[in-house]
From TrEMBL:
Lineage of producing organism: Bacteria, Pseudomonadati, Pseudomonadota, Betaproteobacteria, Burkholderiales
Keyword Cytoplasm: no
Entry protein name: 4-hydroxybenzoate polyprenyltransferase
Membrane spanning stretches: 62-83, 104-130, 136-153, 165-186, 235-258, 270-286, 298-316
Alphabetized Gene3D superfamilies for the sequence: UbiA prenyltransferase
Keyword terms of this UniProt record: Membrane, Transmembrane, Transmembrane helix
InterPro entries reported for this sequence: UbiA_sf
Length: 317
């Protein structure tokens, strides 16, 4: 359970914290580096966007992976940064109890500064999306509005805060929408494949995200703090581990099917190799019952490897 909701918007409403000295830009830069590390998320977002575009594009239509493809990857990065800023506000009360070193909790930035960053990023996202396509700007606006709606829902619904599987079902669309963003970009250029061909690709990328989501939060219940939420607490360690690997297998199976359909031949099953880092991390987790193990590098690495393999296989067609 995450406890009572944080009061409505504003630093005074949430309780003042001692602010770290320094310029506002320096504090915001530090916040971004900590909460949304640019080198890591640049690799993730570039891989995510180019994996989608490579698999969705018709053969020999690589021109769309030029500067506009890079713009789609940048939009992914900025949308995730916006959602990260909103999440920092949304999770403030929970982080005060369980993650006291989060930047907003310890006063590295103020609530007003985080909201200001979110607003500035939103403006850039809308401008970039409008340059790509007016419809993309509308879609991005709806996606970011959904993120704000999640914050309001969590503040007013104890059930939503307490039930992690319900929380996942409601919050998943805001991340899964990135896949639709890439498809709409291609549609605006007349390059989008038919839906029956695109759906396996889109679902594969949703599944690999869920693989990461379940994997990075695996924790033995006896190591969880009082009141801490987690998939292992809701499903048990065997259930959460099985769900994690099930989503990973689904992502690879769907990607294999998509590559086979595109004519990649013997290279089509290569995405299965992306599960190796996750398998190593999961094995370490199982044998280390008495100490906490960070699985995010293993499952994050598996997701990036999945993207890179898809890009490589798609280029063989």
């Amino acid at each position: 359970m995450k406890g009572p909701p944080v009061p409505p918007f504003g630093e005074a409403a949430a309780g003042r914290v001692a602010r770290v000295p320094g310029s506002r830009l320096r504090r915001l830069f530090g916040f971004v580096c900590e909460a949304h590390p640019p080198p890591i998320y640049a690799v993730v977002c570039a891989g995510w966007a180019y994996s989608l575009l490579s698999m969705l594009l018709p053969p020999r239509a690589g021109a769309a992976l030029g500067i506009e493809g890079a713009a789609v990857a940048l939009a992914f990065f900025l949308i995730l940064l916006f959602l990260r800023a909103v999440d920092e506000v949304k999770d403030l009360d929970y982080d005060r109890r369980h993650n006291p070193m989060r930047p907003l909790v310890r006063g590295a930035v103020s609530l007003g500064e985080v909201w200001g960053l979110a607003a500035a990023v939103a403006v850039v996202v809308l401008a970039l999306s409008a340059w790509l396509s007016p419809r993309l700007a509308v879609f991005a606006a709806l996606q970011m509005a959904y993120g704000i709606g999640l914050l309001l829902l969590e503040r007013h619904s104890a059930t939503f805060r307490r039930r992690i599987l319900l929380n996942l079902c409601v919050t998943l669309p805001v991340s899964a929408a990135l896949n639709v963003y890439a498809y709409l970009f291609l549609a605006s250029r007349g390059l989008a494949p038919p839906l029956q061909q695109a759906v396996p690709v889109l679902l594969a990328h949703v599944a690999v995200f869920l693989h990461l989501e379940f994997g990075r939060k695996l924790k033995w219940p006896h190591l969880a703090a009082a009141g801490e939420n987690g998939y292992a607490l809701a499903l048990g360690v065997p259930g959460a581990s099985a769900a994690c690997m099930l989503f990973g297998g689904a992502a690879c199976a769907l990607a294999t099917w998509a590559h086979l359909s595109a004519g990649a031949g013997a290279a089509s099953p290569l995405p299965w190799f992306a599960l190796l880092p996750a398998a190593v991390g999961l094995q370490g987790f199982i044998v280390s019952r008495q100490e906490a193990v960070s699985l995010k590098p293993y499952f994050g690495g598996a997701m990036v490897l999945f993207f890179l393999i898809n890009i490589a296989v798609a280029r063989l067609v």
